[in-house]
Amino acid sequence: PPIQQRGQLPTVYDGIYQAAYSYGMSRTMTRQLIKLLAADVDFQSRLAPADQIQVFFSQPDESDQMSEDSELLYVSATFGGATRNFYRFALEDGSVDYFDEDGRNAKQFLMRKPVPNAVFRSGFGGRRHPILGFTKMHTGVDWAAPSGTPILAAGNGVVEKAGWAGGYGRQTIVRHANGYETSYNHQSAIAKGIKPGMRVRQGQVIGFVGTTGLSTGPHLHFEMIVNGRKVDPMRVRLPDGRTLKGEDLERFTQERKRIDDLLKQDADGPLKVASAKSES
Length: 280
Description:
This protein is α+β, with helices and mostly antiparallel strands. It has three helices and 18 strands. Strands 5, 8, 10, 11, 12, 14, 16 and 17 form an eight-stranded antiparallel β-sheet that branches. Strands 4-3-2-1-18 form a five-stranded antiparallel β-sheet, sandwiched between helices.
């Protein structure tokens, strides 16, 4: 077959969905996978022949497709030359999360890109305002995406404000730990139930991309505020997610070894590894 030009190849985002579809993964599990990789995979970049994703889930049916009781146990994703491995682990408090080999959380404290498949349109800093015509400070990052595209909460937090805000159009502000806030602007609609005082979790849909207020087209104007000061969301240092310690780390290490042993089992074992090379 002819060698494809890089520009003709599908995006990483499309590739992940194609791989998930080939595994028979449910929509819920596919969303979980996207969320897991959202902190540091560039979904808009083109797939490279070396890119691949391996998923490993419990209780597949006879044809190796996932069943309703399946859980995503392990993900190994190689994109842009970097490989990330994540293992599922149930914490003492009953919550479930994914950690790398060293027990570091897959999630960052805050995602820098709350619309996973959006295109970077305009960065932080002084620029000529497209409507007002004069140079003014652009206090966030613009992520362009079609109207109605879901916006995800960048991190766990409490909704501080949700409503109309003049030139910002429909705006939601979420307060996170340690003096961090995130602001989501020009939304076509705010998600149902998103009201001041409500708790939100990282990756939860909180609104939809639009072009309300002073805006030249559908995009999310995303701001990050630290101790009351607007900062560049792409450059600000963010605290890491949690790292397991002590007994939790010991239990995690045992669980990681258990999953690694299952991965090593031959193809006739009860659980199977599925691997999708993204060469098409």
